[in-house]
Amino acid sequence: MRTSQALKVVGSSLPRVDGEEKVTGKALYTVDIELPGMVYGKILRSPFPHAKLLKVDGGKAERLPGVVAVLTREDLKGSNYYGAAYKDQSIVAVDKVRYVGDPVAAVAAIDEGTAEEALNLIEVQYEELSAVTTIDEALVPQAPLVHDSSSSGGELMGHLYQAPPEFRGTNLCYRFSYSKGNIDEGFKKADFIFEDTFTFPRVQHFSMEPHATVAQVEGDRITLWASTQDPFTLREHLSDIFRVPLNKVRIIVPWVGGGYGGKLAVKTEPLAAALSWKARRPVKLVLSVEESFKTVTRHPARYCIKTGVSRDGRLIARQCKIYMETGAYADAGPRVTQKAGYRALGPYRIPHAKTEAFTIYTNTVPAGAFRGFGTLQVTWAYESQM
To answer: Taking 70 as the threshold, does the pLDDT of residue 319 lie above it?
Structure first.
């Protein structure tokens, strides 16, 4: 289409509205927030992938000069469990730890150095348990269970999720299935059949800004400055965890230095809020890059694909079995698995198809949302086969 009028937008360079603030250093991120009386939080993490917690004693740490509060499981008996899809995660470990890096306790102190020193004074006794760290280990009959009992379901992005009753006593977290046509007849009609198995490794978002929260709890009011992509969902979770009305929770989002899905739903924000409640002062909790790697990753996956084709190149049938490793806690795993199952056939016309997708618990870092949300793993696999 031709026009006699000059185009005002197409072909024009538009300035970034956030450019000046960022390049001049005026942009404030969560780590830049300073509040009167603020103290600094640090997390004590499990050195074991799977162990019972026999004892957690913060007495010596509390007596260290400069320590304002030590948070342990004893402080959180009235708080609810939480999670993006299933409510299977506690603020700090209660009965056992489920992966290397699982939070066991936390400290608030006048500076980060004192908080780090106090972590070394917390006495923890573990009874190490056998762990499952791969999909194969988790699926073996009588495998050690990551969760001894099934978790209560939840809602994520408008979908309700619940583990089937038959998954009790296993490390299976969620199942999605889809079929159309007649898969057996489809393979009978195919001239050629190709079978492949693809594995996808664990990767991390590696945002420029690690997870960071400044929490201020005053009475029943919770105010958080958080590096989050999902403030409204976070607000709902905090309201539920601490049993306060939704209008008592306020989430403020400064500039966010990258998220890519890793800052969706709930991560370390409840711990920061609980630490502020215990300390009765604002608390800044900023993770290191290493700690972010122990907080959330993309789902490792295995994709078994069987495709039947005709001599003239038409796709006749495809059968898929997908295993998504969600780690120690479900996080967004069921939703990611559901999306992977929906998209396992790709953009192709395939008259006969059957897909099964499973979310698997293991004693590894929880896996959550990441750009593509389950699509990347299966797309790479089926396009590799094509």
So the answer is: yes
Of 273, 293, 313, the last residue of a domain is 293
Q: Could you tell me the CATH number of the domain that includes residue 325? A: 3.30.365.10
Domain-located, residue 329: yes
pTM to 2 decimal places: 0.93
User: How confident is the model over 89-134, as pLDDT tens digits?
Assistant: 999 999 999 999 999 999 999 999 999 999 999 999 999 999 999 9
346 and 211 in one domain? no
CATH, residue 282? 3.90.1170.50
pLDDT of 272 strictly over 70: yes
For the stretch 158-201, pLDDT in tens is 667 777 788 889 999 999 999 999 999 999 999 999 999 999 99
Q: Which H, E and C letters describe the chain, residue by residue?
A: CCCCCCCCCCCCCCCCCCHHHHHCCCCCEHHHCCCCCCEEEEEEECCCCCEEEEEEECHHHHCCCCEEEEECHHHHCCCCCECCCCECECCCCCCEECCCCCEEEEEEECCHHHHHHHHCCCEEEEEECCCCCCHHHHHCCCCCCCCCCCCECEEECCEEECCCHHHCCCCEEEEEEEEECCHHHHHHHCCEEEEEEEEECCCCCCCCCCCEEEEEEECCEEEEEECCCCHHHHHHHHHHHCCCCHHHEEEECCECCCCCCCCCCCCCHHHHHHHHHHHCCCEEEECCHHHHHCCCECCCEEEEEEEEECCCCCEEEEEEEEEEEEECCCCCHHHHHHHHHHCCCCCCCCCEEEEEEEEEECCCCCECCCCCCCHHHHHHHHHHHC
| 115 and 37 part of one domain | yes
